[in-house]
Design brief:
The structure holds two protein chains of two kinds. Chain A has a single domain, classed as Non-ribosomal Peptide Synthetase Peptidyl Carrier Protein, Chain A (Orthogonal Bundle). Chain A is an all-alpha fold. In chain A, helix 1 crosses helix 2. Chain A is built from four helices and no strands. The relative contact order of chain A is 0.20. By secondary structure, chain B is of the alpha/beta class. Chain B is 41% helix and 15% strand. In chain B, the strands form three sheets. An eight-stranded mixed beta sheet of chain B has the order 15-16-14-13-12-11-10-17, sandwiched between helices. A five-stranded parallel beta sheet of chain B has the order 2-1-3-4-5, with helices on both faces. The radius of gyration of chain B is 27 Å and the shape is globular. The termini of chain B are far apart. The chains are: A mainly alpha, B alpha/beta.
Chain lengths: 79, 652
Amino acid sequence: MTKAEIYAALADIFEDLFGRSDLVLKPSTSAKDIAGWDSIRQIDIIMAVEQRFQIKLTTRDLDRLTNLGDLVKVISRLA
Amino acid sequence: MRLHGAPSLYWLTEPPEWRDRLRALRAQIAGVHDPAIAWREAMALAKAPLDFQRTVALDQALQFGLGPDAVRAPSGDRHAVRLAILSTSTTGRLGAAIRVACLRRGLACTLYEPDYGQGLQELNDPQSGLYRFAPTAVLFATDARTAIGGLAPVAQADEAHSERQAFVARLTRAWRRARDAWSCQVIQQTCLPLFPSLLGENEHLLAASPAHFIAQLNADLRLAAGEAGVDILGVDAHAAQDGMAVWHDAALWFGAKQEISATAAPLYGDLVARVVAARRGLSAKGLVLDLDNTIWGGVVGDDGVAGLVLGPGSAAGEAYLSLQAYAKALAARGVVLAVCSKNDEAVARSAFAQHPEMLLRLDDIAWFAANWQDKATNLRAIAKGLNLGLDSLVFVDDNPAERDLVRRELPMVSTPELPEDPALVPQCLADAGYFEAVTVTEEDRARSGLYRSNAVRAELEAQATDLESYLADLQMRLSWAPFDPINLPRIVQLINKTNQFNLTARRMTQAQVADLIAAPDVLTLQFRLRDRFGDNGIIAVVIAHAVADAAPPASYRIDTWLMSCRVLGRGVESATLNVVAAQALVRGAGRLIGVYRPTERNGMVAEHYAKLGFKPCEAPDLTEEGGFVGALDLDDFTPRPTPIAIDQMASP
């Protein structure tokens, strides 16, 4: 799966979870860039990513996430 | 690592363009719009087999950045649910899933979720937010680790036993407190059996092992809940069916202290909503079966009775038989069966009469519609003939085209997407939870027989030259009694299930009804009807309150008058009024006041009081738009003529 495909799927997920279609997703995007991205929303994102890509992140993966770039790296490793 | 499959709502159908419709709904809600139209569209979107992400998306569209009236159920309070979740672990988006699942059933759910672990404190504090919220239902969700507490795995059996007892006793007190405070529905979630075993196959030898302790505790909870009239939410059973890995995500537990996995959220929400709906009498009541390739293999018109695939001899034949057995068992516990098939009626009936392997018999079927009309027309006739709402029918048909037609014509009928293999159909019906029930009464057990004798009565009615002699021929006997604890479950069931012949459609909890038994200024009456075909059981309920401040003569106001539709058209109303009037007179009343409060479903009784001789009276505080308030003077009341004999029930 290419990075572009992963970002396209993430755009869908973010639109659903934040109810906005105008979000710009970049590798550096993190919780401070999007209003409402709190710890609950963080879990929503992980769960939706796991379902969409049919993968399971480990507790170690979860602890290491700092921005979207990290998440995309994990996805491309597992998916 | 690959993800374990999530339990899905596989019986629901995917509407086309779901995501575009959600975008449109979001835009619609943000602008000027009709809340009722938005509600209908949201309900249609909720009927898709939603996964976690789409559940959250739909819920977000309805919840965030909107006024409370942006989307509104047209029926108002009647379909409003106020649910408090008292959880010992994080609930995350489980609440969103509950709201969406309620929406799927036309229920508008508002949630109150205290921070995890705070629920029981709030229950003990009348100043708390929980008391301000005043729930209509309270869900106790206890996580398995909290249940274990400090119990050491090697503790002795008696210590484990007393820990369990103490735990259940604490919950029982909490249930009672919630009941006393709000007379609400109480739901207790079982604990997820998520602990790895310490011994293995013979885990039970270690009484305090977490795995064994939780299994025993769940059994105790079910017993205690059954005795207390508390409804169980059996997540342990679903985890056993689907696999613990899809119900509990250890990473989510360690990261966020959320016990029920988000992947299970859509199903979890649906389970909560069906128990809530069941308490309100909104579960389905009738199962309508297609015949060819649904309850037997082959087409009876082409293959002949002898050519049908049914029973031993083939795997498919056994599978069709298993669906028949399941339907028959559902009927035995109160679900009404009907047939809706494109067939020649005589040919279709001959399969029932002649095929030696048929488990379902003609007299299991309360309504037999085999003809060449379209199925939507037949379903309308079935609903009318059985006096059931279309929204309480489940239609099972192997043919996707027929299902599609019925869904388009009659979206209120539940038409599940069926697995292609008939072997999987019974489990599909169970998984969908259409017939969720929270009580079992004697009337449930006898119901299919009652509907059957109704068919015989209908025949007699057709033969009788006039209605009067028909009714006389029935040799009816109406027995009355005040409410009593023995019949309480049936009375509560009628109060909450009866939609059509129900003058005020006032719903009450078991606790509220129980309180009336000893209330001095309340006249409570239950009615049982027997006729020469058998006992119809308790079929009518009346509750009348003494009106405190009225000038003489003293009045009784009839706040509840309802009757089961299976005894419609038999003059029971007049006989019932004679009893109500006599009992009000005994209590010194000079007047009865009747109130009709219109709902979407009770149009058939709009003229009820006028027909019984009540004169319209001024009562602006009681009259609703389209409603009626009337008074009946008891001083010059003469009992209405009736072919029904009346007596008082023997006390239990």
